[in-house]
Amino acid sequence: MKIRKTPDKYFANLPDYDFEPHYLTLDDDEGGMLDMHYIEAGPADGQPVVMIHGNPTWSFMWRKIMRQLGDAGYRAIAIDLIGMGRSDKPTKMSDYTIARHEKWVRQALFDKLDLNGVHLVLHDWGGIIGLRVAADAQDRLASITLSNTGLPVRDPRAAITQMAMPGAGLLRKFQLFVRFNPFWRHWHMLAAICRTKLAKNVVVAYAAPYPNFRYLTGNRQFTQMLPTRFDNPMLADNFRARQKLASFDKPFLCLFSDKDIVAPDGHKSVRPFIKGAAKRAPVILKGGSHFLVEDIPDAYGAALLDFLREIG
Question: Among the options 95, 186, 290, 295, which is catalytic?
């Protein structure tokens, strides 16, 4: 597997992002080695709160939440998924699957960092990947917080009677646009979706890991893995993960925003099916877009801390 590494110079002087970089070397399925980047805040002996971003974000999105958690005494950790942020970037779109992301994250958190009593905080694709990791590591977790994401599933025992998923037409057009547009500048899309006007240096920071189009492969592949067809292998794997999580009875918070246009009802994909999630009504914050930690970071951080303090 060939990889690209974004030079360190591109991460200099990013707004509110002066965290020391840390790296974990992961063993890839095919015998290669990959470096996953992460940042930390707060005391090293604090309860670990691990934040997992989605697409097209990276650990930069958690910068304000990191400080709120660290100041409250938690060991805040935010990873960069492989292919994004300061992590290594395999060069082929076929190098990326949800199953591989799941293995990379599991290895990072539990084999390399050896974390226990983890509070998982998941957003966008981080929700799907994180829940699949959680399914096989329930004894290592203290809680789960799910934000503006969902867990689409298909029972593998059910026959597929049609390929196209209902309402997937716009997603399919988006997939085709990105597939044939290697110069997709996703940071502009992110800024357009936000309810607040992002400062220019914040938009530049979201673009920082991608000095040219050759670094965008991981982001572009996430768009191709969106579930537009019932034969998407992710759906059956997600179903099996949800079955494992059905009896998960630890605290589970759905923390969403009311202006999300991507996954506004994503909490409905877990609350009836996972015991801990079903026990707690979702918290819907006002004024936040899909990227709610950009629009309403103070409200998000306060709600998350209220939850963590409540459960001890």
Answer: 290
Contacts of 244 (CB under 8 A, 6+ apart): 135, 136, 138
pLDDT (average), residues 283-290 = 98
Distance of CA 206 to the CA centre of its chain: 15
Type of residue found at 130: G
Cα 130 from Cα 52, distance rounded (Å): 7
Distance in angstroms between the alpha carbons of the first and the last residue of the chain:
43
- 22 given a catalytic annotation: no
Domain count, the chain: 1
Catalytic pick among 28, 80, 260, 295: 260
Considering the candidates 88, 124, 237, 295, report the single residue annotated as catalytic: 124
290 annotated active-site:
yes
Phi, psi of 231 (to 5 degrees): -90, 10
User: How far is it, in rounded angstroms, from Cα 239 to Cα 192?
Assistant: 33
Instruction: Give the other-Cβ count within 10 Å of 111's Cβ.
Output: 12
Digit-coded pLDDT (tens) for 182-219: 999 999 999 999 999 999 999 999 999 999 999 999 99
In 10 A of CB 150, how many CB atoms?
21
d(CA 29, CA 114): 20
Provide the pLDDT for residue 30.
72
Q: Which structural domain, as residue segments, surrounds residue 149?
A: 3-311
Torsion of CA 101, 221, 92, 129, to 10 degrees: 0
Q: With 70 as the cut, is the pLDDT of residue 31 above it? A: no
Q: Using one digit for the tens of pLDDT, what is the confidence trace for 121-163?
A: 999 999 999 999 999 999 999 999 999 999 999 999 999 999 9
Q: What is the CATH number of the domain that holds 66?
A: 3.40.50.1820
